[in-house]
Each structure stands twice: as structure tokens, then as C-alpha cells.
């Protein structure tokens, strides 16, 4: 209520308002108008992190400038307004180049981390004879990959583990996450993770064979949004991760696992990937990427750089894992 659709999309606005750490006196949206017309805006949301020290910080979640107003510094102005409002507490992940340049200009440190992208389908364009032959070869290759994928799927659900699907992280699961996050740049609070999960998309359980308990996530609809998957071995939590899927990509945004159960956790993620039949997969975990690559189901792989902008006094050596990224910002 009170947030104009001209400034911010309703679903984004309500998601920010429902954030558990929002208070009435917080400045969360900065907008610039020219002659009554919206020219640029940005927004942020609060986040209580538990490590490396417990503190309330703020994440940029959007930056927009209308094309006809670009090149005038308006985007930098609204960013600067939020930085002034939350001095030394503003962070950003997965920003575009223009935003990163603005953040650096305003005094923030911008570092980069690797994201691994695997592609499982090949697109061939054109209508000539050469393109037709290439399409025929790719169709044959795709059928071979599909046959192999079914064999790999059976291997992935063979280990002794069960899966739980939830839109809520309970205390035991969060305790496991905290215990297995020592290599992370920061640990988000349980409240924040549950807030991310509370903004639902279509939910389902793509790997029903491994469900520990039948529940309302037991449908086999091959599409879903953010939710938490727990992996249990002999009744004990062996891993936990948050998955996000769109029509184009399956992405693991948060991944925690016990090293001695790495195979079971990675197998469960691979089973989701095969069952959903999505053309791309993304992860920030190099070990998981190498595991899936070793199965030989992909047609290509690449490593891209994602940005992490933070105050200059925030310690980040470039090796710590970033458990966040595009898509968990309620976009």
C-alpha cells in the first residue's frame, strides 16, 4: 500500500514489505522524477547475517533507468541516495556492468566469483541443407543423451538417501547449514532464508521416488520455484540446498553438505536436473559442476564471472563461497 506501480512492480514491493526485518522508518526505495515522469529508481531490502559477524545489512535488488533518461547520471543518483541512507551496510550480487561501475564510483569494492554453467541442449539455426543435416545429427545425439540420462538417473536415485521438500527451514536444518558454512563469505539468517522461500512459485517434487514423506509437494509437475531440499542418510541430515527453476535453467543458489555424503547430495541434485529436462544448469560450487560434467550429459560448459559488491571494510579474499545470486532477490 502506498507504493506506486510506476515506481516498483507490485510483487516486488509486497515481497520487500513482507521482509521480516523491515521497519516503518527504513528507506527502501529511491526514485527520481523529471517533470512528474519516473526517470530512475532503485530498491533494497534488509538482511540479518550471522557470519562473519551478526549485523543487519542491505542488499540492492534492482536499478532501473528509462532509456530516454540514460547518460545523465540518474541511476548513480538514486544509488547514492540509498548508499547515504545505509552507509557502510549496502551490498550487491550479480549486478550488470553499468551498476558495478556506479557502485565503484560511489566507493564500494567490486569483486568477482565463478559461476559454472552447463548446457544440455544445442540450438541450430538456419533452413539450408547444411543446417538441416546439422539438425538431424543433433536430434540423433539428443536421443542418445536422453537414453544415457535415464541410466544416470537410475544411478543417481540408487544411493541410500531420502529427500524432503519444504518452503520452511526448521531449526535443525538451519543448524546444519550453519555448521557447514565455514567457507562462505557470509551466512544469511534463518529468517532471511525463510523469507526467500515464502515468495512462492509453482511447487512440486520432481524426484518423487526419493521422498522421505508423501506430502503436498509430491506432484510430478516438472517445474517449480524456490524451495528447500534436505537430503537425509540413515535419518540424519547430509545436505541441504535451495533450488530455483525457470523454463530455461535449474540453479542451485544455496548448497550445504557434509563432505562424507557429497556423492549422495550431488546425486540428488543431478536427479532433479535430469527429471526436469531443463536446457541449462548453474552452480557456484566447482565440485558439483565437476561431478555433473563427469557424467557426460552436457553439450557444453563455461565459467562466467559474477559480481559481489561490498563496503571496502568487509573482508573478502576472493576464495570464500558466495551463497546468493540473481533470483533470490525476489525479482
Question: How are the SSEs ordered, and which strands pair?
Answer:
Layout: H1 10-17, E1 29-34, E2 37-51, E3 55-65, H2 74-85, E4 90-93, H3 97-105, E5 109-119, H4 129-156, E6 162-166, H5 171-179, E7 187-188, H6 190-198, E8 227-233, E9 236-245, E10 249-257, H7 262-276, E11 280-283, H8 286-293, E12 300-310
Give a structural overview.
The protein is of the alpha+beta class. 30% of the residues lie in helices and 29% in strands. Strands 1, 2, 3, 4, 5, 6, 7, 8, 9, 10, 11 and 12 form a twelve-stranded mixed sheet that branches. The chain is globular. The C terminus is likely disordered.
Describe the structure concisely for a colleague:
With 331 residues, the protein is of the alpha+beta class. It has eight helices and twelve strands. Strands 1, 2, 3, 4, 5, 6, 7, 8, 9, 10, 11 and 12 form a twelve-stranded mixed sheet that branches.
Amino acid at each position: 500500500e502506498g507504493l506506486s506501480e510506476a515506481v516498483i512492480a507490485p510483487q516486488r514491493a509486497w515481497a520487500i514489505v513482507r521482509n521480516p526485518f523491515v521497519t516503518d522508518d527504513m528507506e527502501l526505495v529511491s526514485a527520481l522524477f523529471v517533470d512528474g515522469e519516473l526517470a530512475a529508481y532503485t530498491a533494497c531490502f534488509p538482511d540479518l547475517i550471522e557470519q562473519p559477524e551478526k549485523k543487519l545489512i542491505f542488499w540492492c535488488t534492482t536499478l532501473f533507468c528509462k532509456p530516454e533518461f540514460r547518460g545523465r547520471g540518474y541511476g548513480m543518483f538514486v544509488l547514492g541516495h540509498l548508499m547515504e541512507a545505509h552507509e557502510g551496510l549496502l551490498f550487491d550480487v550479480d549486478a550488470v556492468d553499468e551498476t558495478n561501475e556506479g557502485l565503484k564510483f560511489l566507493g564500494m569494492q567490486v569483486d568477482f566469483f565463478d559461476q559454472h554453467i552447463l548446457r544440455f541442449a544445442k540450438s541450430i539455426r538456419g533452413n539450408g541443407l547444411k543446417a538441416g543435416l546439422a539438425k538431424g545429427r543433433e536430434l540423433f545425439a539428443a536421443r542418445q543423451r536422453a537414453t544415457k540420462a535415464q541410466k544416470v538417473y537410475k544411478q543417481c536415485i540408487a544411493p541410500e538417501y531420502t529427500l524432503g521438500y519444504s518452503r520452511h527451514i526448521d531449526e535443525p536444518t538451519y543448524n546444519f547449514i550453519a555448521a557447514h558454512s565455514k567457507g562462505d563469505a557470509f551466512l544469511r539468517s534463518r529468517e532471511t532464508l525463510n523469507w526467500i522461500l515464502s515468495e512462492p512459485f509453482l511447487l512440486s517434487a520432481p524426484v518423487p521416488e526419493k521422498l522421505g514423506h508423501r506430502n503436498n509437494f509430491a506432484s510430478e509437475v516438472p517445474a517449480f520455484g524456490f524451495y528447500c531440499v534436505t537430503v537425509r542418510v540413515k535419518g540424519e541430515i547430509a545436505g541441504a540446498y535451495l533450488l530455483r527453476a525457470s523454463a530455461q535453467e535449474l540453479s542451485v543458489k544455496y548448497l550445504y553438505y557434509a563432505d562424507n555424503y557429497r556423492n549422495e547430495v550431488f546425486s540428488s541434485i543431478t536427479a532433479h536436473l535430469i527429471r526436469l529436462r531443463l536446457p541449462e544448469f548453474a552452480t557456484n560450487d566447482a565440485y558439483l559442476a565437476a561431478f555433473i560434467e563427469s557424467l557426460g550429459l552436457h553439450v557444453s560448459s563455461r565459467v562466467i564471472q559474477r559480481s559481489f559488491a561490498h563496503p571496502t571494510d568487509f573482508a573478502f579474499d576472493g576464495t570464500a563461497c558466495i551463497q546468493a545470486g540473481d533470483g533470490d532477490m525476489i525479482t
